[in-house]
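Listing S7. Sequence submitted for prediction.
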Amino acid sequence: MLELHAISKRFPGVKALDEVSLDFQAGQIHALVGENGAGKSTLIKVITGIYQPDEGRIVYDGTEINFRNYRQSLDRGIGIVNQEIQVIAEASVAENIMLDKLDAFSRWGRIDWSKLNAKAEEVMETVGLEVAARTSIGGLSAAQKQLVQIARALSAQVQVLLLDEPTSSITENEAAKLFVVLRQLQAEGVAIVFVSHKFDEVYEICDRVSVLRDGRLVGSKPLAGLPRGELVEMMIGRSAAVESFGALSVDRSEEVLRVDELAGCGQEHAASLSLYAGEILGFYGLVGSGRTELARLLVGADRAERGSVRIRGETARIGSVADSLYRYNMGYISENRKEEGLLLESPVKSNLGITIWSRIVGRFTRCIDDQAEIRTAEQWVAALDIRSTGLQQVVENLSGGNQQKVSIGKWLAAGCDILIIDEPTVGVDLGAKAQIHQIIWDLAAKEGKAIILISSDMPELIGLAGRILVFKDQQIVREVEGVQNRGFAYDEVSREIGEHLN
């Protein structure tokens, strides 16, 4: 269906793709894996005309093609679901899904909105997006926006579907619904390229895997019978040991954060919880279940209508994220790095230093101490293995995984006592994921930080959190205690959580 012959692509200071040759078959789900910066997203953008290759040929359905833009790619039946959220915030869910097909619902210059919304609802039901088609997309969570992107691609009836980390912000239940759809498309002869860092998903849904490393193709193999250790070694060039963290020793007498009956505007249910020094408290639930909504109330990103927040026994009055950070030393790593987590057009140095500017600004000059900012940036570039051409590289030009590391790094630089981390390893490769998990663990175990960890990755939560709060319908429906004390009994804990989601 699709053949790539010796594709190369260069950017200033880096060769992103180096003579990559691959073929993707009709009716096959083909995994594309590799560490951050390996060239996966660049390859997808070359296929769809977003980037132009410097060398090489692309053959589609027997004909050599040279797309100049994504519109041409989509017109020929090649669609993409980007890792980065790309929606029009002012438009409705239906408009975003049908954006490239509006002419199909137009007659005499007027759009039949009833038909457009009805068609959008069909696709929304397929991916499990449970909101009204007319809802403005600006108020949706990052996970819901990701489902909109998936629905948009599926509505185009493509012959080649390119999925770049499609499950990065959705839960196992939502991913399972997506996999049913993908298998249906596979049966219809669609060629599917599936980019993911989640090996469980790769082995579950894919037939074949190709590995990129440093812009080069390492190899392609059938997944059936391929040992995971061999795949990991292909990807990172070495074997990787899996370590368990064990149980944190948490002193329940040192309550750092207490939330009593907290609710936002229009929310029917209120939330109450306690968080202790040196604890990692997990939040788990489906898209729209209330996890992120509660986090945003806590840090002042959204306004609370009732309830109270106490930090170290004192009533906290948090009116903004700045209040949260500078008055109460509480930080929030947003799940939506593109819109909320990063200054995309600014360099790595500025993004990593922004949370400490108030500490390194000259008393009289009011200028940032450039050397202090550089030292901070260098520290976190090294600690998180952020791959860039230098501290002055614009963040927008980094790979998705390296952008995520920068988003995390700026809050780690702030040294917050309380840290709310929302989807910390979205789009992050195996090696970086292990690094981030170790950093989170050390912050709690060695520095006594109090951490709320929000994640759609259940193994991640079970591996790190001592307690897990289960969210459903905008409320906490269950508290799962003593997770690590069960000896990482993943099946037991996941079953207990699953029982309260259904």
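Caption to Listing S7: primary sequence and predicted structure tokens for the chain studied. The first strand starts at residue 2 and ends at 11. The CA atoms of residues 45 and 51 lie 5 Å apart.
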